[in-house]
Amino acid sequence: MDLRLVCLAAVVVLCAAEPRRYDGYKVLRITPNSDDDMMALKKLKAVVEDKVDFWRDIRAVGSPVDIMVSPQMEKLLANIAKEYKLDFDVAIEDIQPLFDDQMKHSREMSAKGIIGGGSFDYTEYHTLDEINTWIDDIVSTYPALVKKVPVGKSYEGRNIYALKIGSSKLDKPIVWLEGGIHSREWVSPATMIYITHELVSKYGKDTDITTLMDGLHFYIIPVFNVDGYEYTWTSDRMWRKTRSPNNRCVGTDPNRNWDYHWSGASANPCSDLYYGSSAFSEIELKSVTDYMSSLTDIKVFIDFHAFSQMWMSPWSYTKNLPNSNDFNDQINLAVKALEALTAVYGTKYTHGTVANTIYEASGSSIDWAYGTLGVKYSYAVELRDDGTYGFTLPARFIEPTAIETFEAVKVIANHVM
User: Fold this and answer.
1) Do residues 187 and 401 touch, judged by C-beta distance below 8 A?
2) pTM of the prediction?
3) pLDDT tens digit string along 84-114?
4) 83 belongs to the catalytic site
5) What is the 3-state secondary structure (H, E, C) of 67-98?
6) Which of 382, 399, 404, 407 is catalytic?
């Protein structure tokens, strides 16, 4: 073979292996101030939806809409916004340096050949390999309190692990917490990891945690969408979906694929909101939900996302409310949980049903947990922040996010215990 072709092939392979960069990408913010602005925003979205990334979608008058744009798309979107008489601000000037900062610690540790072990830093973001090593470490460090449970497989063959946490093997009510179903929402797995460490490291030392551990089992999935999460580190920081192929594109939105009022989201296989070829088409969801269905006493289900600071209850698929007794109990408990959360640092959350707080979203996790499994206290939580950083949330916010979130979880866990 011609040596030049060999060299060219090598260059192509190296280029293909390089992670996508977002140099010069901005986040633009448009805040609709009237119904006319809302209509104009919807027209704008119809024109540019497949060319930009809506970090925060169109919700209501007064709610900011955040749109990530490439340098090439910035001028076009600005012109369209001007045509529709919409004002915008630059919320983030350049997202790539913020992504680099999020990954800095892990890359430094990797360069030193350190993965997990005593070096694990709960105030930094970590790769999937580091998290899996941490799982093994925490199980070996606290064998009487935590057990690693393989609850499913991914399309690419990775294990999805839950940590079963409690002070005995006796059957007890279950609090199910899961993070990382949308792979780019890094503060979600980081929060699950921090809460896990708090539970096991403070058992026998903290009265409240000891009581919870004695009375409940916590099942915590740090990273649900393992293929997608791995991909955010190796290939595209902004990847949201699973990694299974579908027609001409890759990936299904794993929070639009649950088998409860499925099919109301996007039918476009290239969309970030693609609902899949069928309900539970994604092996990740099918295997995890099969495992969940085998458990007998799940009292709480919380699916952690980011960002926007919202604590939401069913329904997602409709603006209609659940039966009044359940709805009142769900909201009242959410209010108490958020009072505890806000008391820590003053962080403000909104609450309500998903459909009435953000938008209708069929095939969601909490609708399935509530509607199929009958878990009354089912919540979808959007963690920090309020849009200042969005998906680029610096690692220094992991600890305060986790600490305040754990206070809310403790309120809910105490209630069902």
Assistant:
1) yes
2) 0.93
3) 999 999 999 999 999 999 999 877 877 676 6
4) no
5) EEECHHHHHHHHHHHHHCCCCCEEEECCCHHH
6) 382
